[in-house]
Structures are given as C-alpha cells and as structure tokens.
Design a protein that fits this description.
It comes from Microbispora rosea. Keywords: DNA-binding, Transcription, Transcription regulation. One of its GO terms (biological process) is negative regulation of DNA-templated transcription. The chain is α+β, with helices and mostly antiparallel strands. The chain folds into two domains: 89 residues, Winged helix-like DNA-binding domain superfamily/Winged helix DNA-binding domain (Arc Repressor Mutant, subunit A), CATH 1.10.10.10; 176 residues, GAF domain (Beta-Lactamase), CATH 3.30.450. The chain has nine helices and 13 strands. The radius of gyration is 23 Å and the shape is globular.
Length: 272
C-alpha cells in the first residue's frame, strides 16, 4: 500500500487520502450548486442571511462559497445582495423573468422581438423593468452607441418614485403603492423629484388615466423617460416597458405612443 506524508511524522494511506480529498471537493461543489440553485430559483437579489437560511449552510460556509462563485463570475454582488451573474444569468434568463417571486415561463422569447422593434423605431435606450421592493429591476435593456447615461448603469436598478417604469408599476399595483406610500418619504434625487405623498398620488392617478408614465429629469439631470404597463395572464401589471432619452432628443408624446403600443403588443404576446 502506498502512503502519503501529511505533516511531521504523520502518514496516511494514499488512496484513503485521495478519497477524503475527493469527498471534500464534492461536498463544496454540491454546496456551491445549492447556492446557485437558490439564487436562480427566484432570480431576485438575496443577502447573505437569506442565502444562509434558505440553504441551511453556516454563515461562514455561505460567505466563503459566495465569494468563490463571485470570483468565478457565476454570482454578482451589488451592495449586500447577490444574484446569479455572467454566463449563468444568460442561461437562466431565457426561461423567463421572475415577477415578485413568480416566474413567467418563456417570457423573454416572446417579449424580446417587441423590445427590439421599439429600439429600431426610437433609437433610444429601451428598458424592461419589474418591481423589487422599493426599486425597479431592469431585466432587459437595449441600446446603441449613443446610450443616454444614467445612475442605473451597471447596477440595473433604480428607485420606484422617480423613474417612469417605477411610476407605472406603482400606479397599477395597489399593494405595491400602499406599501411604498406607507414607508418613510423617499429620497430626492434631483430638484425635480416628486417625493410628497399627495403630489405623487396625484401623478400616479394621471398615469392610470393616460396609460403612460413620465419622468422628466427626476432620477438624473438631463434624462427623461416614458413607460407603459405590461399586463400578465392574471390581468395584473407584471412589467413596465420604457424608453429613456436625453432631454430634447425626442418629443415625449411621440415616444409615449410608441411605448404604449409596444406594451400592448407584449401584453398580447404573454397571453398566447
């Protein structure tokens, strides 16, 4: 039998040592896979405590494995939250997006052609957003070389109250609106940001009346945006489609008509 030296004066059978190492590696691999499956199941950000509780692993082990997965590009960290990232996200996304914990199967395949058509018509940044707490999460974005710069670049997230997509989601989701208005007053992002509850509710009522939401330099100076609601099979709003452009680049009413038409087309596609 062959032996392998381990430390001073300590020898163990080589095949047993290799089996132990293989078992240890397999255990780490399985735990890493469990974490990836946990994050991919809902396709929404989770913090360390949430991942630790969902998987049952110790916090130390969870933190170590999340760090490894992040270094390998399989997990993305934004602040204290983790999501599947890189090539893994590209593989998961075609199955459909998660909307408030409920996945819409095949939604990406049905929706993407309409987003591309909207970009071809407007030649401005096209966004598709879903609600996530007090923020919108941009699950799809199309843009060219002249992309308008925004604080959401790189993080694909923005506050509900000062974005066109956020206003649309607040306007059509009574539960989301009630929770948002019951929370502490939101932060003012620019001099044009609407934060007073009464003023915000008045604007959300206008969104419902017109079927389109606007944000005029409320999230970032020099950026305007127009959005419209997308309704799911259950009749409730599930997403918002939007176009973002530099101020003065295009007439908002014209952009609004194109966005509203696209949202209607996407709603029809999701019902098929």
């Amino acid at each position: 039998m062959c032996f392998e030296r381990r430390g001073v004066g300590l020898f163990v059978p080589l095949d047993r040592a290799r089996r132990a190492e293989a078992a240890s590696a397999l255990g780490s691999l399985e735990r890493g896979m469990e974490i990836l499956l946990c994050l991919a199941a809902g396709m929404r950000p989770m913090n360390l405590t949430q991942v630790h509780r969902s998987t049952g692993f110790s916090k130390t082990t969870t933190h170590r494995l999340l760090g490894t997965l992040q270094r390998r590009g399989l997990v993305t960290r934004t602040g204290g939250d983790y999501t599947v990232g890189g090539r893994l996200a590209d593989l998961v996304a075609p199955r459909g997006w998660a909307v408030q914990g409920r996945r819409l199967p095949g939604s990406r395949r049905a929706v993407l052609p309409h987003l591309l058509q909207l970009y071809e018509v407007t030649r401005q940044t096209v966004n598709l957003a879903v609600p996530d707490g007090s923020e919108v999460a941009y699950v799809e974005r199309l843009y060219g070389h002249n992309r308008v710069k925004s604080p959401s670049d790189g993080v694909d997230r923005a506050p509900l109250h000062c974005t066109a997509t956020g206003k649309v989601l607040l306007a059509y989701d009574a539960g989301l609106r009630a929770a948002f208005l019951a929370a502490p007053a939101p932060r003012r992002m620019t001099g044009r940001t609407v934060t007073a509850p009464v003023a915000l509710e008045r604007e959300l009522a206008a969104v419902r009346g017109e079927g389109v939401g606007y944000a005029r330099e409320e999230f970032a100076e020099g950026v305007c945006c127009v959005a419209a609601p997308v309704f799911g099979p259950d009749g409730g709003v599930c997403m918002a489609v939007a176009v973002a452009a530099p101020v003065g680049a295009a007439a908002l009413p014209r952009l609004g008509a194109a966005v509203r038409r696209t949202a209607h087309q996407i709603t029809g596609a999701l019902l098929l």
